Amino acid sequence: MKQVYLDNAATSFPKAPGVGQAMADYLERVGCNISRGGYQPAYDAAQTVLEVRESLSRLLGAPGGRNVIFTPGATYSLNFLLKGLLRPGDRVVTSPMEHNAVLRPLTQLERQGVEIDYLPCTETGELCLEQVADHLTPDTRTLVLTHASNVSGTVFPLAEVGALCRARGIFFLVDAAQTAGVLPIDMAAMGIDGLALPGHKGLLGPQGIGVLALTNSLAQALEPLVSGGTGSLSESLEMPPFLPDRLEAGTLNLPGIFGLGAALRYLESEGPALRERERRLAGHLWARMMELEEDGLRVLGSRDPARRTGVVSIDFLHADNGEMAFRLEQEYGLQTRCGLHCAPLAHRTLGSFPQGAVRFSVGPFTTFAELDYAQGAVYELLMERNP
Ligand code: PMP
Q1: Where is the Aminotransferase class V domain (predicted)?
Q2: Residue range 352-385, pLDDT digits in tens
Q3: Which ipTM score applies to this complex?
Q4: Ligand 1 neighbours (beta carbon < 6 A)
């Protein structure tokens, strides 16, 4: 039986061509550390790392390469932002569509006296934009929002929310785990102060490397989550005052950065065509699943295909979603993700708690034929109960 990978929202697969080779080349031919060795290969490797930072800065509209901090992933970047910024007595605004990578750090902070306020969302997971301003009270320190939900695929209007935050001097933090490399992001134009993303999803890079991109004012306000060696100003027991060193302690994941660099080079040449293809695949998957709504299925999320990513979650109305996902895999080779997707409040908002949903998510290398095959399989399962 053929296997069809439709879990790109969890991690993209396959990766961009050249990623594995770049990682192997680093390990087999370079090997040395950067900022800690006075020899040519270390300087060359440091130059490559700087180029990857600059490439990310261009892609994300960040203020510059030095404002790009490497982390182990989006979860780490979000913890860094929230725990580095918020103090007891601060107020933070967020949405119920967030991933636990936001909600769990916030819950920890709430125990320390941080107040959390949730923005209202509709039952299709869309932000009630006209109500956002009412929540941005004078004592609000920051607003943290996902760019797109990993459950419903619904895209949030970042530029509009960013403008509201900027006008009030509120730091705007964005979780771009589902969109970096897939949808255009421009920190400057969207008023984003802190952007968290993983290398292993839409950027088509390896696991274990993530990014935190920051404006200078947020970088100044952030307390380092982790401190330690940077290879610079070692005589001081304080972290260096300049970026990226101020916020980046310890040896970096150099194989990961070299792999991510290869992915970014691929995206720089192929990105526009890949994005367009993924947009068409996303629309196709959504339209095919929507055809089945009258047969006992509910498709979660926005009804406007222009405001969706390539994530389509479905709720079998007359069957157990877990059993259906299991059968899709066992009988059709369809690899999906069932459950609550680390986003319990999103499922509550969408009316799919506690049963969860079966999530299909495309990547740029998915084919239209695979999506038609997936729809046919879902249809067959529905017809068993509803002939
Ligand atoms: N935010 C969202 C919206 C996500 O989908 C994910 C990954 N599922 C994360 C954050 C966390 O990313 P990572 O596991 O790569 O740290």
Answers
A1: 4-373
A2: 999 999 999 999 999 999 999 999 999 999 999 8
A3: 0.99
A4: 10, 73-75, 99, 101, 146, 150, 175, 177-178, 198, 342
pLDDT digits (tens, 9 = 90+) for 214-261: 999 999 999 999 999 999 999 999 999 999 999 999 999 999 999 999
> Best mutation site among 11, 75, 151, 173 for ligand 1, i.e. most ligand atoms within 8 A of its Cβ?
75
| Dihedral, CA of residue 351, residue 356, residue 362 and residue 367, to nearest 10 | -110
Residue to mutate (ligand 1; options 197, 311, 342; most atoms within 8 A of CB): 342
Atom of ligand 1 nearest to the CA of 74: 16
Ligand 1 center–CA 221 separation, angstroms: 24
Name, in order, each residue with C-beta under 8 angstroms of 304's C-beta and a sequence gap of 6 or more: none
Strand bridging mode 311-316 / 357-361:
antiparallel
Model confidence, pTM: 0.97
Residue 108's identity, in one-letter code, is Q
Structural contact between residues 110 and 262, judged by C-beta atoms closer than 8 angstroms: no
Alpha-carbon gap, residue 165 to 190, rounded angstroms: 10
CA of 151 to the centre of ligand 1 (A): 11
What is the residue type of 11? Answer: T
Per-residue pLDDT tens over the stretch 76-113? 999 999 999 999 999 999 999 999 999 999 999 999 99
